Structures
1.
Amino acid sequence: MLNNMELTDIKSMQELCEKHEDIKLKLNWDMLEQRSTRNDDYFYYKEKKLIGYLALYGFGDKYEICGMVHPRYRGQGIFSGLLTDALKSLKARHARSLLINVPGTSLTGKTFAASIRAQYDFTEYEMKWNPDSLLPPSEKLVTREMKEADIPYSIKLDIECFGQSRSDAEAMLKQSIKESGQRSLMIVFAGNTVGKIRVQRVGNQSFIYGFAVDPHFQGKGIGRKALAHTVREESRWTQDIFLDVAATNSKALSLYEKSGFKTIYSQDYYQFNI
C-alpha cells in the first residue's frame, strides 16, 4: 500500500511533467490508491525529492507500465534503472508480456520506447462527451447489471472482441469487480443479451470502457444505440462523461464521434519483450 506522502509526491510530479510537455499521463489513480502490495511501484528520490517513478499494473500474466522522470533530471538513465528493476520482478513472476504506456504527444516517451526497441502495438483514445449531442433512446435496447450467470459470456466477449486470452479476460474481470464505483452492465437488444459495457464513477465524472458487442450481432447499429443509452443514463447525474477506447481504424472512431464524443488525448502502447 502506498502511503500518503508517496501519493502526494507522485501527484505533484505528474502535474509538473504534464505541464512541461503538455501531455496527459495515464497513472490509473483508482488502482494506485488501492494497492495491496508495494511490489508494483518503483521510486527514485534525490535529497528527499521524487524525481523518478514507474508503476506496474498487472492483468493476469500481462503487465503495463507508466512512469515519469522530473524534467530537470532526464537523460541520466533514471527511468532505465527503474525499468531494469521492474523487469527483474516481472521475470520472477513469470510475466508473459509487457506494454509500455506513452502519452500520444510525448516526444521524450516515444524516443525512450524507440531506444529500448519496443514495438508500437495500438493507440487508446480518451474521448469526452458533448452534452449538446444527446441521442434519442431506443425502445428495443436496455442495459442491466451483470449477474454471476453472465460471467462466462462476458469472458467470451473479451476473447472474441478484444483478442484476449482466457486467463487475461478472467483477470481483467476480477480486477474490474474490485474497483470502486464500478458497474458491469450487460446490453440487451430485442430481448437478447448481445454485449457488455462498464461504467465507473469517480468524483463527479463518469468513465465508459470495456464496450463490446457480440460479433454475431454487429452491423445492426446496436453499438451506437448501447452507447447512446449508457450516456443518457449517466447524464442524469453528470455532464462529464468520458470514453476510453482502443480503436484501430477511423471507422471505429467514427462510431464514437457520431455518438457525441470527441478525442481529448491519446495513449500509445508499445510491446516490450521481457
Note: Residues 4-21 form the longest helix (18 residues).
2.
Amino acid sequence: MLAMAACTSRYQNHGYMPPPEDLQNIVVGVDTRATVDDTIGPPTTSGVLPDGNYYYVRSRVRHFGAFRPEVVDRTVLAISFDQNDTVRNIETFGLDDGRPVRLTRRVTDNSVEGNGFLRQVFGNIGRLNPGEFF
C-alpha cells in the first residue's frame, strides 16, 4: 500500500491569474495602469523597463514518484501599455503558444567550502598587515 501511495500524482499550483470576470472590466484604450492595479491587482512580474508591461503567470506542475516534475499547464496573461500608461492590448498565452526557455543556474564558487573552522581562523594569520591597523 505504501508503494502505491508513492506512485500517485501530486499537483502544485504556482502564480496568480485574474478571473475572466475581472478581465472583462478592463477596457482597451480606456483603462490605465492605475485602474488595472485597482481592478485585478498588480502583477508579480512586469517588464524590465521602469514602465513595462504587466505579466500574470500561473503554472500547474505534476509530481509523480521519483520522476522529474512536469509542467502540465502554464498560462501567461500579458497586458501592454502605451506611452500614456493606457492599456494597449490584452493577450493570453498557453504552453502551446510558447517555446521552452532553458534556464541556466550559475553558482558562485564558495572558497570556504571544505575548510574547517580552525583552518579558516589560522589561514588568515599570514595575511595580516600591521600597516592597516593605523
Note: Residues 112 and 120 are 8 Å apart (CA to CA).
3.
Amino acid sequence: MKVSVEADKCVAAGQCVLLAPDTFDQREDDGVVVLLDETPAPEQHDAVRESALVCPAAAIHVHEE
C-alpha cells in the first residue's frame, strides 16, 4: 500500500488523524493533513483505507500495490 494526500483539498476535519495517527497528522497552524508515512505497516492498512473513505474532501488516496 502507498498513500498520498492532496493537502490543498484538505478541509482539516481531522478524521484521518483520529483513525490512523501513525500515518496522518495535522499542521498546527491550520489543521491541514500531514502525511507521516506513505507506506504504512500492514496492521495500519484498514485504518488508512477507512480514513480515505471518510475524508470529506476526498484528499486521501490509497494505492494498493
Note: The mean pLDDT is 97.
